[in-house]
Amino acid sequence: MKSIDRLLVRAGTRRAQRLLGWTTLAGFALTAALGLFVVPPDAEQGDVQRLMYVHVPAAWLAFLSFGVVFVASVAYLRTGRIRWDRVAVSSAEIGVLFCVLTLALGSLWGRPVWGTWWTWDPRLTTTVVLLLIYVGYLSLRNVADSPARRAHWSAVVGVVGFVDVPIVHMSVVWWRSLHQQATVVRPGAPTMDTRMLLVLLLATAVFSVAYGYLMAVRLRVGRLEDHAAATVMSQPRPRAKAPQPVPAGARDGGLDHG
Amino acid sequence: MADLGYIVTGYASTGVALLWYRWRLARRARRACNLIDALSGRRARPRRAPR
Questions:
Q1: Do A221 and B9 touch (CB under 8 A)?
Q2: Cβ of B35 under 8 Å from any chain A Cβ?
Q3: Does the predicted interface ipTM exceed a cut of 0.90?
């Protein structure tokens, strides 16, 4: 836990953030160039298969983000340190972004290949459920009335909600699905052309660096927002005015309205 | 070539989503800084000058 703490502090420095940002940008440019112009198209699907180099890493990043939410939530429930809550909510936000992106990119890929933008396939349905769980996680934080209660409730949802991640991954194995089977994370060797696999792994690494960058920035924002909230709470509240003494005549019905 | 629209939309939407989130974080950070400055009585930090 202490080494993770140290890593978070290091990643939070401006210099580290700038380095991560530029690495992410260069990585995206390289991945796009390789994915669009260098790697050959798929024999069956043609060029549209090139969407794989953004769709699969986006899905991986959503899983990674929700995995971090799970670990940070467990850490919060064990230690009660608010820093873990901050890590969890930052990761959940990024996870939701990439989950939406996964669904959108999958829909774009599905239209020319499956002939439809959307179908209630097990993989797609479980992914929507995953998205709703973490949208609920973020919404729940606006309901709780104290920071400690908010962190506690969120941590419980962060732990329980993670159950859906392996279900999403295994959905293509457990149920009959239109979505293709796993080609990389599966028992045995990946069933993919080596060049395609290398670019896919590079894209996944680049997206992971992007996650590190966004997490570093989001954690800084979280610290600033917490500081701002603490500053607001520490402001002296205006005193309630003491009741003015009422003249005896007025109290005894001296105000004649009639 | 018929698939070009899907590919361009996919790659562009990925870039736009990341840039939008980064911009949103920058805006939230600026707002929090301004609030802290205003409440603690400091002058608001000047924005970084364009190069």
A1: no
A2: yes
A3: no
